[in-house]
Amino acid sequence: MKTVTIRVQRGGDDAEDLQTYEAPYRDGMSVLDALIWIRSNVDPTLAFRYSCINANACKECVVKVDGKTEYACTARLANTGVTVRPLSTKSLIRDLVTDTLPPKEKLSAAIKDTK
Ligand code: FES
Predict the structure, then answer these.
(1) Among the atoms of ligand 1, which is closest to the Cα of residue 72?
(2) Could you tell me the pLDDT band of residue 56, with boundaries at 50, 70 and 90?
(3) Structural domain boundaries of the chain?
(4) Mutate which of 29, 51, 84 for ligand 1 pocket (most atoms within 8 A of beta carbon)
(5) Which pTM value belongs to this model?
(6) What whole-number percentage of the chain has pLDDT above 70?
(7) Ligand 1 center–CA 62 separation, angstroms
């Protein structure tokens, strides 16, 4: 089976700590498919978000794929491999997870926390 190299930024600060994984490759698979395979088979600590898998409805899987902002569920995995990083315009939580809550929802959450 053909494999492909996936480089993923890891950690909870902005330091460029890229970890390299090998994942099985098949035509048409998405970047999210590869991340899910890595988390299920190699590294259960890899943090990323998704919900609808490929309906492009939840918008939770947004990341940087080879420097471009993309939804990991619709970004096709190149057979030459990819580098996946978190959004650089949002606060980094860990690995590929950033704080993507709209400001209004953050305000609602803050009000709830004070009650
Ligand atoms: S997983 Fe829902 S938009 Fe990508």
Answers:
(1) 4
(2) confident
(3) 3-114
(4) 51
(5) 0.86
(6) 88
(7) 8
